[in-house]
Amino acid sequence: MLDAPPVRPVRARPASHSSIAPVALDKLPDTTFSLLLSLPRELRDKVYTFALVSQFPFWWPSPTTPKHNVALGLLSVSRQVHKEAAPIVYAQNKFLFTNPSDCTMFRVVASPCAENITSVYFRIREKDVKLWATYLGSKDPSRSMKHDLPRLKSLWIFLRCGMMGTPGVINNMVGNGGLPAPLAAQTQAIHQALGTQLPPQVQVNMQVLQQAMHQAHAGAYGNMAANAQAPMPFVQFAQNALQNQHQNQNQNTAAPHPHGLQNNPPANPSPLATIAAQQQSQPAQNPPHGQHHHRAYAHGHGHHQHGFFTSFMRWEREMGLENLCLSLQETRPVCTDVKIVCIVKLPRPELQRLVRVYADELNLDKNGDARTRFRRVHGVDVSLEVSGYEIGA
């Protein structure tokens, strides 16, 4: 019969050995544990600094910013890490801006920790000096350095003063193996176009500076080697500028403001022409050049009357450097270290001649550029950097 019960019971199957043994909950790893957060805060700050601080400045906004090799992903690990590391990113890195609006927009779009920025670089073109001077001297909460960078401690301003050439280079670019003819003609056209737009005082000062560099060109191979004398005093260069100014302007100019310097001074007489006029009207009472040279450098302040830096400062005053320094007097924090580097480009042969003539003032760096030591101008450290460029084969 098919439905009859079995004679004997079916043997039970053995228990399976593939089942997972129960694990106690207290033995599971703690997902909230972190080796980084287990370190003391002082060591964590060193880790943050090593991972998030770059030796290169962050140029904003710029698509060509070099790789900084920083681990910004560390900021997204946890809220605690972000809270501890974000201030270090802004406080210990350097930031570079080329326009005042960029600096203001960065404050708006960046993290609130951006108020911890302490080191900033500004790159200023000479035509934008007035725009930057307004921004640096403003107290407007919506657009001013004082409110955009409240904790600023180090400010470097790189003022690009343009490209120049000595009269020998400008006039003989084609004949002496310099620039090609089309490029030389274009360069002369640019100089002429700029000359028509600049005030007369500025044109005079530019001529005087070019005469100074021309003197360096001649002295490097002539008088300097034969007589071992210092270059001609800058006041003598200004005498030619004074004569040109009297021919072009036969009217009296306004005297300097009686209450001192202003942020936006009126058009005063050229300082070069004034010095030359005093030199002509008064007998020379200065000590011999050797004694004056020794005494000027003994004080350590660099007020060398015949120096290349002094010659440049008299010319650059009309171009806005003085206005830039004065704009920082009332707005910068007391503890802020401000340095301005004025960059002038010259043909490399002319740069080498200047270094030979003004060996006491110009020092070459590893890139072949020359720079003077910093001098105080209205409470700001100012240096002149002469960068050389090749003029062609």
How are the secondary structure elements laid out?
Layout (H helix, E strand, L loop, with lengths): L40 H12 L5 E2 L19 H14 L1 E4 L2 H10 L9 E7 L3 H9 L7 H4 L5 E10 L3 H5 L9 H17 L2 H20 L3 H5 L6 H15 L22 H11 L7 H11 L8 H9 L4 H6 L10 E11 H10 L5 E2 L5 E2 L3 E3 L2 E10 L4
Parallel strand pairs: 1-2, 2-3, 3-4, 4-5, 5-9
Antiparallel strand pairs: 6-7, 7-9, 8-9
Plain-language structure description:
The chain is of the alpha/beta class and 393 residues long. It has helices at residues 41-52, 79-92, 100-109, 129-137, 145-148, 167-171, 181-197, 200-219, 223-227, 234-248, 271-281, 289-299, 308-316, 321-326, 348-357, and strands at residues 58-59, 94-97, 119-125, 154-163, 337-347, 363-364, 370-371, 375-377, 380-389. Strands 1, 2, 3, 4, 5, 6, 7, 8 and 9 form a 9-stranded mixed β-sheet that branches. Strand 8 and strand 9 form a beta hairpin.
- Principal-axis shape equals elongated
- Helix and strand pattern: HEHEHEHHEHHHHHHHHHEHEEEE
Radius of gyration: 33 Å
The number of helical runs is 15
The whole-number mean of residue pLDDT values reads 72
Q: Considering DSSP H and I runs of 4 or more, what fraction of the residues is helical?
A: 40-55%
Find the structural class using helix and strand composition. Answer: alpha/beta
Region (Disordered): 244-303
Biased composition (Low complexity): 244-255, 276-289
Biased composition (Basic residues): 290-303
InterPro entries: AN11006-like
